[in-house]
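Design request, tokens follow.
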């Protein structure tokens, strides 16, 4: 099973914490603090099992990034889990409508995240 995850978050502390947690669970982690860079990484490396996409980033938010990924052949099938501090029910729906397979709110509950990742495979 491919366990390579791309974490996209503009806060390096969030990436660091997630990396530690997921690596301990056997996942390989790549990360990016910018959505455009992450999209390039996805295009250049076709072996990601999933993307954890922060929805609130300065230069391009997760909604726009997901839209680009979903409209780009080669990478439009990659499962995306939206990660956001916006935790209202309509926020979850907005993430799913944007093209994410699942949604995890911040602060991240690791058990919920791991379940979401397992449900993708």
């Amino acid at each position: 099973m491919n366990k390579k995850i791309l974490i996209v978050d503009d806060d390096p502390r969030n990436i660091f914490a997630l990396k530690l947690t997921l690596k301990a669970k056997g996942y390989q982690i790549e990360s990016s603090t910018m959505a455009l860079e992450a999209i390039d990484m996805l295009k250049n490396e076709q072996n990601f099992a999933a993307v954890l996409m922060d929805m609130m980033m300065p230069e391009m938010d997760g909604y726009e990034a997901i839209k680009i990924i979903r409209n780009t052949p080669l990478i439009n099938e990659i499962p995306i889990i939206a990660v956001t501090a916006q935790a209202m029910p309509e926020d979850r729906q907005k993430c799913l409508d944007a093209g994410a397979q699942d949604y995890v709110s911040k602060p991240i509950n690791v058990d919920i995240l791991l379940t979401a990742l397992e449900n993708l495979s």
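Comment from the thread starter after seeing the answer: thanks! The CA atoms of residues 82 and 119 lie 14 Å apart.
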